[in-house]
Structures are given as structure tokens and as C-alpha cells.
Design goal:
367 residues; alpha/beta; TIM Barrel; 13 helices; binds ligand G3I
């Protein structure tokens, strides 16, 4: 008699379900209500705020660690739960960094978002050797089963699918090439979402995207393709609960308030929640004078937050980093004048900036 492991069951369940059968119970899996995900976001309280954090800095930099404890109700690992850190080789899982972050969060009563399970980006070299649909599905479901079950009950919200669209999509099928699309096509999304729901039915499943906020044909195409993708997941009764707006804002781009609000109304009509997951302001095109630049950074973020919060109450607002001391922005967007970027709520000396005040204003505006 062949014995079937739990993993085999999950692979089969994800596969069968990805074929589009309705939920076994007959109750729709798509957008099942999640009245409250974060304890910090209980009714009557401000929108919970959090930030992406780095495990090494939390260990080595006590003033940064204290600033995270003092300001963050939620944290999200900037890299420690991505494949390179947690699944560096075939069949090998390394949880030390992620576990250290979870311990820090537990010791300081901070909640944790998981980031990310299915992405094109930053994949370890070994995944390029995955060379069949069956192997791709097995590895993706195994990863999800291993990682999500380890933190079941302690991570209430996961970025299950991150950045599924190409930069300028001409439809929902314009998925960004990855090992998952190469082997599984668009089916990788239902497979990942169903596998996550099968492991942790209480987790909030999030599809996380960037460049949704602005005026212009590329951004209109992204909003349209994302809505079509969300509707295709609904039509196949794929479990999904929220859209994550990364909100990496650029000085050179105008927020398209009307189009963003129309998009958010459509997301709400699908009964999906909204999170702001990676807010920062990429300031390399702003003036060099700090007081002027900080005011413009806060102004742009304020425009975005006003547009969003006028239509929907985000389940959380997270910035992609807490302090300018640790930010990804100069990796790609160094300032021509050579001055340090200032994209985040606290400066490199952990002092509050106008951006901090703007976030506080909108956190408290829509209680
Ligand atoms: O840990 C290794 C280190 O051992 C090695 O010596 C070094 C040099 O190669 O690389 C280190 O890994 C780097 C990792 O950050 C940790 O610092 C990777 O090269 C680097 O690519 C990685 O960049 C991260 C990027 O995602 C890719 O995972 C950024 O810090 C992180 O801010 C960025 O975050 C993304 C979100 O996940 C999705 N949304 C966009 C956002 C910004 O790009």
C-alpha cells in the first residue's frame, strides 16, 4: 500500500483546486471576510503601522532596535523569509534569521507579516534547475508547506504572490517571467494561494504589487491588468483576501487620485481588503535642501494616503524600512548630488521627519 505524506496531499489539493473546482464546502474561498487581522488594528484603534526590518541590524544596532520597538506595531522581514535566506539549496531550509526576527517580535509584542512566498525576484540559483511542471509545483508547495506551517498562528498575513505583473502589462496574462511562469504558467498563482490557505486557513493571503498609484498609460495598464487578474482568481474561487499596494512613490510621478480611487473601489467591490505594504518616497529627483526635500516627501506621501484613505481603510500601513539608516533606495536610486536618500519616516539619526507625522495623521484619521 503506498503511503501518502501530508506534502503529497497538499500538492494534490493545490493541483486539484487550481483546476478551478469550487471550495469543497461550497463556500467561496475568494475574499472570505477577515474582520480583523492584526490585534493592533482592533475597532476604534488607529490603522496599525509597521516597517520592514533587517535581522542583522536589530542584533547589532541597539538604537535602531529600540526605535523599531517604540514605533512599530507590525514588522515584515526585508529579506529573511525570502527564498535565498530560508531555502538556499534544494531540500535545505535555514530558519535561523527568520526565527530570530520572530523571537524579537514575540518578546516585544510586535506582529509579523510574512514576505514573500512566490516571486520572480531574488531566487536562489538552484531554482533555475527546476525543469518540469511537476517538479516546480512540488518545490513551490513544499516551500509553502514548510515555511507557512512553521509560523502558523504567529504570522497572520502573508505576501503570498509578489509582483506578478510585467512592468507594462497588456492584460492579466502579462505575468512577469519567473521559474514559476516558465513551468506552471498562470497556474502558479492558484497553486501558491491554495497551498498557503491549506496550511494556514486563518492567514490573510495578500497579492502585493507596485506602480499602481500614478497617472500615465503604463500605470493605467497595470491597474487594469491587476483588476483582471483579481477577477480571474475570483472566478476560479482561488483563496485571496487582500491587495498589497507597495507604494514606492517617486518624485517625478503624479498620483492619479481619480484612477487610484476607481481602482480601490473595484478592489473593495471584490470584497478584498487593502494594505499599504512598502511605503517610501524615492527622493533622488527632489531638491537637495533637507527641509525642502523632507516636506516634499511628506507631501507626496500625504497625497497618496489621502487618496487611499478617502476610499478604503487600509488594514495596515507599512513603510519599507523605518529609518534612512537602512533603506534599499540608494541601491538603485542614488542622488546625483551624492547626498544620502531620505525616503523613510525616521532620519539616519532616528529622528522623526514630516513623513512620520503624515503617516500618524492618516493612521488616526480613519478610525
Ligand atoms: O545577504 C547577501 C550577502 O550575503 C551578500 O554578500 C550580498 C552581496 O551579494 O547580498 C546579500 O543579499 C542581498 C539582500 O538584499 C540582503 O541585503 C541581495 O543581494 C539583494 O538583492 C537583496 O535586495 C533586496 C531586494 O528586495 C531583493 O530581495 C532589498 O534589500 C529589499 O529592500 C528589496 O525589497 C523589495 C521587496 O522584497 C519587494 N518590493 C520591492 C522591494 C524593493 O526592491
Amino acid at each position: 500500500m503506498t503511503t501518502h505524506s501530508r506534502r503529497d496531499f497538499l500538492v494534490q489539493a493545490a493541483h486539484v483546486a487550481a483546476l478551478g473546482t469550487a471550495g469543497l464546502s461550497g463556500v467561496s474561498a475568494f475574499a472570505t471576510p477577515r474582520p480583523q487581522i492584526f490585534a493592533a488594528g482592533a475597532a476604534g484603534k488607529p490603522i496599525p503601522y509597521g516597517a520592514a526590518v533587517r535581522a542583522d541590524a536589530l542584533t547589532s544596532d541597539m538604537s535602531y532596535r529600540e526605535a523599531v520597538v517604540a514605533n512599530c506595531q507590525i514588522i515584515v522581514p526585508e529579506g529573511e523569509m525570502k527564498w535565498p535566506d530560508i531555502h538556499p539549496a534544494r531540500g535545505e531550509y535555514r530558519f535561523e534569521k527568520a526565527d530570530a526576527l520572530m523571537d524579537f517580535a514575540r518578546q516585544n509584542q510586535i506582529e509579523v507579516r510574512g514576505h514573500t512566498l512566490a516571486w520572480y525576484g531574488g531566487m536562489p540559483a538552484w531554482t533555475a534547475t527546476i525543469d518540469s511542471p511537476a517538479e516546480a509545483e512540488r518545490e513551490l508547495v513544499d516551500h509553502i508547506e514548510t515555511v507557512v506551517s512553521r509560523y502558523r498562528g504567529t504570522i497572520p498575513s502573508w505576501d503570498v504572490v509578489n509582483e506578478p505583473l510585467v512592468d507594462w502589462p497588456d492584460g492579466p496574462a502579462s505575468l512577469r517571467p519567473s521559474i514559476w511562469t516558465r513551468q506552471l504558467g498562470p497556474n502558479y498563482l492558484p497553486i501558491a494561494l491554495r497551498a498557503t490557505a491549506a496550511v494556514d486557513p486563518d492567514a490573510q493571503l495578500v497579492l502585493n504589487e507596485y506602480d499602481i498609484e500614478y497617472r500615465g498609460p503604463r500605470f493605467a495598464a497595470r491597474r487594469k491588468a491587476l483588476l483582471q487578474l483579481l477577477r480571474s482568481l475570483r472566478d476560479r474561487d482561488v483563496p485571496l483576501h487582500a491587495v498589497g499596494l507597495q507604494a514606492h512613490l517617486f518624485a517625478s510621478r503624479a498620483i492619479d487620485r481619480d484612477a487610484l480611487q476607481d481602482f480601490l473601489r473595484e478592489v473593495t467591490a471584490l470584497k478584498l481588503d487593502v494594505l499599504i505594504t512598502e511605503l517610501d518616497v524615492i527622493d533622488y529627483e527632489f531638491p537637495g535642501k533637507i527641509s525642502e526635500r523632507d516636506a516634499m516627501v511628506a507631501g507626496l506621501a500625504g497625497q497618496f494616503l489621502e487618496a487611499v484613505c478617502d476610499v478604503v481603510r487600509p488594514k495596515a500601513i507599512l513603510t519599507w524600512g523605518l529609518s534612512d539608516r537602512y533603506t534599499w533606495v540608494p541601491t538603485y536610486f542614488k542622488r546625483p548630488d551624492g547626498k544620502p536618500n531620505r525616503p523613510l519616516p525616521l532620519d539616519a539619526d532616528l529622528k522623526r521627519k514630516p513623513l512620520f507625522d503624515v503617516i500618524e495623521e492618516y493612521r488616526r484619521k480613519v478610525v
